[in-house]
Amino acid sequence: VIANLPLPSIRAMSLSGAGPARPLLTESQRRRLASVATRVELSARTIVYHDGDAAEAIFINGGGVVISYKEMPSGKRRVAGFRFYADLFGLAEHGAYVNSTRAVTAVTLYRIPLDVLSTVLREDADLEFHFLCKVVDEVRQSQRKSIIVARRDAEGRVAMFVDMLRQIGPPPHKDTIVELPMSRADIGDFLNLTIESVSRACGKLKKAGILAFSRHSVRILDPARFDAIVGNG
Amino acid sequence: VIANLPLPSIRAMSLSGAGPARPLLTESQRRRLASVATRVELSARTIVYHDGDAAEAIFINGGGVVISYKEMPSGKRRVAGFRFYADLFGLAEHGAYVNSTRAVTAVTLYRIPLDVLSTVLREDADLEFHFLCKVVDEVRQSQRKSIIVARRDAEGRVAMFVDMLRQIGPPPHKDTIVELPMSRADIGDFLNLTIESVSRACGKLKKAGILAFSRHSVRILDPARFDAIVGNG
DNA sequence: CGTCATTTTGAGGTATTTCAACGAAGGTGG
DNA sequence: CCACCTTCGTTGAAATACCTCAAAATGACG
Predict the structure, then answer these.
(1) CB B6 within 8 Å of CB B109
(2) 185-224 in B: which are within 8 Å (CB) of A?
(3) Got the DSSP string for A140-194?
(4) Is the CB of residue A75 less than 8 Å away from at least one CB of chain B?
(5) Mean pLDDT of chain B
(6) A22 vs A16: CA distance, rounded Å
(7) Fewer Cβ close by (within 10 Å): the C or N end of chain A?
(8) Does B55 sit within 8 Å of A94, measured CB to CB?
């Protein structure tokens, strides 16, 4: 039995977003899901599935970071987003995945076949509500990305990216240090910037004394000015 | 009683996107929804709700075009997207709407209070599944927008915008003529371009003999080259 | 310790953005 | 019915920002 399927701790928001967090799943619902989920452990840089593959399951991230991306006809790579703990991914269209996903770090995934998921959801409206909330959250994530990429200045985009990771990143989110497990290329493909522009933007923010970058983390040195840059999107 | 609540004709895709269209709602489900929905008729340029308003209901577009946008702190306007027939809108966060919505044309809306919606969905897993599919569709829309805006050339963005409207636009979508009910400013705020850039892009596409713009519609003159431009995103 | 991928830095090209002014369309009132 | 006015759309020239191409430096890993 899968003990800690992260669904119950879903970063859920109700349809209205009002009220407290959604009630947790009952023990029977939890067991039901666990009985149809397969635990998968993947090492870093492993492909979970490719764009176009037959979509047979959805995944729940049980730990680690996954990147969702797509190779465009032009050869460029577009990063749809990153999936953290308790995030759902694997949405498909016409029976095929629309994005590719790859493990950025070592990850634990819970794999749930689509047919059995449909059945379970159809039988349990309350459980389905959790999924609905989760998908609603996806919409917000996607819109948030749109807001970030809409900015014209590279520094602003990088700052908002850091701010996003500070908010939605893994549980231990201190306010001054943010982990950046992904490469600069991944960041660039998410922000729609070249790696050079990302690097230069980081350089400027560093030179201004606002952020201190190391390879895979950032330290917020000047929260006031940082928030100012993030704010005027 | 509300006769033609458009939910049954939802442009639904299942979670997997596989298989045929979702089965229609039963007559009892339909009545149930209609009994909690209020029909609203709005004239063009009417605000449906403002960003930050207390979210008390979700809306289903029963005809016409609605624009979803947000005023940014910088003063710029960002358009999240357009809602056509059978589209759902009114998602909120922390009890408040995250976007403003405005009628672009005269519209018919079905207003469903959130509390009663939650109850109804909780009692009927199958009905809820329709909503889930609808929201999944929202995710795709949002990701599609990201792909469009990711392009660097204004002409490509405008072309993909036209192509998007050709596909998801109102039912009578001929392949050669696409309606553009929204203003150039609305298009620009969606594509993240200035109205001047939109105008110039339209001009180039016209001069190239690919598209013919009139105030509120486009004609695709050269489908081959049009598809070529749309394709290399 | 050496190799290789990743990241940083540099100079020039090209796109959109600005700022400004003009032309066209639609609605209102006389 | 026409005139006026407001809004929307188009066109032009300079500035800014990112992109591209190229090369060096850093860090990871065997």
Answers:
(1) no
(2) 192
(3) HHHHHHHHHHH-S-HHHHHHHHHHHHHHHS-S---SSEEE--S-HHHHHHHHT--
(4) no
(5) 86
(6) 11
(7) N
(8) no
Q: Which of A126-135, B76-85, B88-97 has the lowest mean pLDDT?
A: A126-135
**Of B194, B118, B110, the residue nearest B158 (C-alpha):** B194
Q: Which H or E run includes A231?
A: helix A223-231
Mean pLDDT of B2-6: 48
How far in angstroms lies nucleotide D24's C1' from the CA of residue A199? 15
Q: Which nucleotide is nearest to B213 (CA to C1')?
A: D9
pLDDT over 70 for what percent of chain B? Answer: 86
C-alpha triplet A74, B185, B228: angle, nearest 5°: 25
Q: What is the model's pLDDT at position A18?
A: 39
Strands A217-220 and A177-179: antiparallel
Query: How much of chain A, in percent, has pLDDT values that exceed 70?
Result: 86
- The crossing angle, in degrees rounded to 10, of helices B125-150 and B27-36 is 70
The answer to whether B66 and B83 are in contact (CB under 8 A) is: yes
Q: Report the Cα A92 to chain-centroid distance in Å.
A: 16
Which nucleotide minimizes the distance between its C1' and the CA of B194? C17
CB B201 within 8 A of CB B155: yes
How many CB atoms within 10 Å of residue B35? 11
What 8-state DSSP symbol labels residue A18?
-
Burial class (CB in 10 A: 0-12, 13-18, 19+), A77: middle
**pTM score, whole prediction:** 0.89
Q: How many CB pairs under 8 A join A and B?
A: 149
- Least Cα distance to B187 among B210, B158, B216, B160 occurs for B158
pLDDT of residue B47: 95
- Please state whether strand D lies within 7 Å of residue A227 at its CB atom: no
Which pLDDT tens digit goes with each residue over A58-91? 999 999 999 999 999 888 999 999 999 889 999 8
Strands B100-103 and B107-113: unpaired
Assess A116–B contact: CB distance below 8 Å, yes or no: no
Task: Report pLDDT digits (tens) over B157-172.
Answer: 999 999 999 987 666 6
Element housing B219 (H / E): strand B217-220
Instruction: List chain A residues with pLDDT less than 50.
Output: 1-3, 5, 7-23
Query: Which residue is associated with the tokens 């909120």?
Result: B92
Q: Tell which residue, B186, B157, B182, has the closest CA to residue B169.
A: B182
> What nucleotides of chain C have any atom within 7 angstroms of a protein Cβ?
6-11, 15-20, 25-26
Q: Where do runs of H (alpha helix) occur along B89-153?
A: 114-123, 125-150
Q: Is A231 exposed, middle or buried (0-12, 13-18, 19+ CB in 10 A)?
A: middle
